[in-house]
């Protein structure tokens, strides 16, 4: 009887504590902590997590996101084996596990506890991978995977759990061959596109994990060579967390180099020149912003402006290699201005690479300069300028050799395609394919680009022939990427019944 009375008293106390918890406040404080964490204000985020823990010590939310502040601290420090942030992360992750174990002892169907415990195990695994302990991550990860899978099975509306399971499934599917035997032995199952679909659901409907879902999605889409899908998620992240320099830099780089949208990239880099840097290497960030802006100005043929940005990059560079890179580009800009004295002065600071030595020893010819201007414009997607410069170079026969001619023709073909000038694009790629002496990658890529152009003109049979020819080539740079693109284009034609 006494034991029963004690149990009833304990139950009553527990219910009273639960009734006294302001769960709306727990939620709002958790969201504030998440916002601070993704804005890279880790100290303030941790304090907010402590508030959550004070409000609800038996709830996993405060403990989980406190551990994540150390996960991100560790990530920005590079995750070295002696990193104190790693051990702090592990310490707080263990607290999450204990809280979740107590909840699951009380209710084995608690899918929220399954999510936090499974997610903690997953992030511990990622931390171990960065430390070169991949096999440990695989074996430990099995329990986390099972918890997340069970959470989703029991509650398909738990979008946060779908984030964790989707991340697991995609990463398992893409693991290197050397780990596939261990993955299979551990009983883990990958699902490339199924994982992506779950991440997309979490990104749109998740409560606490939608930010993390988007963070993984933008990277996974880049790995899949789908930059236009990637940019959607990184844009959301940089807009939602305006103090996060990393998201802004990633957005700018993807805009510039993947999507070729210089009008979006340029203002982002300008913001990076002055925004406060709360975590990370400030000199590196300023170097990136200045150097990228210098390249954009070079592509626009604004050489004085380019020199100004690149000089700032040279001054902020933390390594000799980066100084030399900036110096070489400044020398190029002075050559475009026909200021040979200044050009050679900067080339002397640019190291001893063969291309730098060539630039130092002789002035570029007008033919070389026009080809280089085309390459700069092409690199940032200034397609109308590529077309006009290539026209003047080809018509006037102002190109130094066949290899340069084929490269310029290819760049002009891409520019015409991106501008909707498909007939002109066809002619450029056909000429490249009929010319000997091109770089080894140009022919397979020209077949692919010609196929894309023909498909836009509903010449489906001819497009398929070009895609088939791509697969006849082997051992050239970026072969894997091109084969993925060809497979994607062929699938699109089949889906459309063509």
Describe the structure.
With 498 residues, the chain is an all-alpha fold. Helices cover 78% and strands 0% of the residues. The termini are far apart.
What structural category characterises the helix and strand content?
mainly alpha
**Biggest β-sheet, characterized?**
none
Q: State the separation between the terminal residues, measured CA to CA.
A: 79 Å
Q: What is the H/E order?
A: HHHHHHHHHHHHHHHHHHHHHHHHHH
Share of residues in helices: over 70%
Number of helices: 26
Mean pLDDT: 91
Assembly context of the chains: single chain
Radius of gyration: 28 Å
Task: Give the total of beta strands.
Answer: 0
Poorly predicted parts: 5-17
Cα shape: globular
Strand content: under 5%
Strand-helix topology:
Blueprint: H1 2-20, H2 23-38, H3 42-55, H4 60-77, H5 84-106, H6 111-130, H7 134-154, H8 159-173, H9 177-186, H10 192-205, H11 210-223, H12 227-240, H13 245-258, H14 262-274, H15 282-299, H16 303-316, H17 320-336, H18 340-347, H19 354-361, H20 366-379, H21 383-395, H22 402-418, H23 422-433, H24 442-456, H25 460-470, H26 479-495
Helix pairs in contact: 2-3, 2-4, 3-4, 4-5, 4-6, 5-6, 6-7, 6-8, 7-8, 7-9, 8-10, 8-11, 10-11, 11-12, 12-13, 13-14, 14-15, 15-16, 15-17, 15-20, 16-17, 17-18, 20-21, 20-22, 21-22, 22-23, 22-24, 23-24, 24-25, 24-26, 25-26
